[in-house]
Design goal:
This protein is mainly β. Strands 2, 4, 5, 6, 9, 10 and 11 form a 7-stranded mixed sheet that branches. Strands 1-3-8-7 form a 4-stranded antiparallel sheet, with no helix packed on it. It has strands spanning 2-7, 10-13, 18-26, 31-39, 46-52, 57-59, 67-72, 77-82, 91-99, 105-108, 112-117. It starts with a strand and ends with a strand. 0% of the residues lie in helices and 58% in strands. It is globular and about 45 Å long. The protein contains no helices and 11 strands. Strand 7 and strand 8 (77-82) form a beta hairpin.
Length: 118
C-alpha cells in the first residue's frame, strides 16, 4: 500500500507565493511520475504540473512561468512552488503518485486547500 501525504496550502493574497510538499511512503516497486492536480468548485480536476523520475516536466498553460515542480527521487518527495498567485488558482490541490510502468496505478493525497484572495 502507498500513502501520499501533502502539506502546505492555506490563504494567501494575490501576487503572493506558496509551496506545497508531498511525500509518498509504503510498498512501492517504482514511482513512474509525481504531480499535482487541482479542483476548483464546480470544475473538473485538472493537471497542474507533473515530473518524471528523469526530471521531465509538464505544466498546464495557465501556470507556466509561475509554478515550478521539483522532485527528490531518493525521498519520494515532490514540491510545487507557486509564485504570482492569482484568485483563479484557488482550488483543492491533490498530489498524484503514479507507480509502475506497464499497468501503472495512481495514488492520491487527501488534498490541500489553496485560497488566493484578491
Amino acid at each position: 500500500q502507498v500513502q501520499v501525504v501533502e502539506s502546505g496550502g492555506g490563504l494567501v493574497q494575490a501576487g503572493g507565493s506558496q509551496r506545497l510538499s508531498c511525500a509518498a511512503s509504503g510498498t512501492m516497486f517504482s514511482i513512474n511520475a509525481m504531480g499535482w492536480y487541482r479542483q476548483a468548485p464546480g470544475k473538473q480536476r485538472e493537471l497542474v504540473a507533473a515530473i518524471t523520475g528523469t526530471g521531465t516536466t509538464n505544466y498546464a498553460d495557465s501556470v507556466k512561468g509561475r509554478f515550478t515542480i521539483s522532485r527528490d527521487n531518493a525521498k519520494n518527495t515532490v514540491w510545487l512552488q507557486m509564485n504570482s498567485l492569482k484568485p483563479e488558482d484557488t482550488a483543492v490541490y491533490y498530489c498524484n503518485v503514479r507507480v509502475g510502468w506497464i499497468n501503472p496505478t495512481d495514488y492520491w493525497g487527501q488534498g490541500t486547500q489553496v485560497t488566493v484572495s484578491s
